[in-house]
């Protein structure tokens, strides 16, 4: 059993908020391994640290962690446009990485605070970009942070998304189907503790799109943690994340977008073999005991959407 050590402050959060118990770790990890041996449809990444991430993200509920693992890998089968061909050296992904579309910020509000992730939709040329590649890179970023970042896993994440000056081509490419798939994966497949999602410089069109095609598929608790602000209400953003924790280009003291984007590009590239290997991990629904999970049931117009209670 190889579990990465964490700081005293993060361990207190894991113990008090996530129900982690050192005496149970070995037994619970063995329970998950035994359960996986009984799931002929699942081919999953099976290192202990990966399982710990799911247990922490599910407040150490074995049942929820198993359900989350199952759905996480089912989505990799049902939505290959998000989860296959994830080579960071692919020219399409390279171009997005070079623009600095998404990267984590180095400073958290305290040593055990949530990781802040900056997502800048304003840097993208939507006339040339494949929108699926943006979503793909978004989830690649989450995957890498799940592997490396204990603040991200234990304390959660705060997303700062910048939507200034979005062109019409953005709305033509951000279709309801893509938005629905994104919302389903973000909420139901990933073992995340979303502490906040703050949209800045939000045009009216973006707010309407978000309210119509993302919000309805999120739990009430998660809806309450999403805040969209226009440029006229920009100061309200700082009630959620103090200005000092924004990048330097936006008046903060949390690193330069150019430098951070380059560093994150290098980090992504260093994980190339990890992402290439990851393509094999998925659900083979034809082998699932009982009723398979199908695309039409999950994403079709008549499909039902799960309403899980998430943190």
TrEMBL record:
One of its GO terms (molecular function) is phosphatidylinositol bisphosphate binding. PANTHER family: ALPHA-TOCOPHEROL TRANSFER PROTEIN-RELATED, CRAL-TRIO DOMAIN-CONTAINING PROTEIN-RELATED. CDD domains: SEC14 (cd00170). Residues 89-258 form the CRAL-TRIO domain. It comes from the Eukaryota. InterPro entries: CRAL-TRIO_dom, CRAL-TRIO_dom_sf, CRAL/TRIO_N_dom_sf. This is CRAL-TRIO domain-containing protein. Transmembrane segments: none annotated. It holds the Pfam family CRAL_TRIO. One of its GO terms (cellular component) is membrane.
